[in-house]
Amino acid sequence: MITEELRKAGTEYLGECWHEIVIGCGGVFSCRKCGYTPDDIDDTNKNRTFTTWQDFGDLKEKILDKGDWNEFEDYCYLIYNEGFGLNKYRSLRFSVWLISLDRIPLMLEWIEKKGKETQLTCKLQS
Length: 126
Ligand SMILES: [Zn+2]
Description:
The protein is mainly alpha-helical. It has a domain at 8-17 and 49-125. It has helices at 4-13, 53-65, 69-84, 90-98, 104-125, and strands spanning 21-23, 29-31. It has a two-stranded antiparallel sheet. A hairpin with a 5-residue loop joins strand 1 (21-23) and strand 2. The relative contact order is 0.15.
């Protein structure tokens, strides 16, 4: 399940603003952090839903760009194996399993977990 916390972690991993829309002067809706103004005044939540192929692709590209793909794939493979066990077709099946909108929650969980580990490392170093 994709919680708001996971969506926020994924958005920030992508280097984007997790918009916090507020009503300003004259009833104008805008993000209090970046000033973004939604087109539709009724839609006050303009953050990513992480339910589309665009979201999946953007996460995949960012994980690759950051050099995190091997770590992410190892994480996924452990989870995949718990469900399927070892078999000779696992490479193909793993790819098919991995490249699915159903894996977006897994991507976000990994990103959130990675973020917490990074924060812990920073605390230990300071
Ligand atoms: Zn914003």
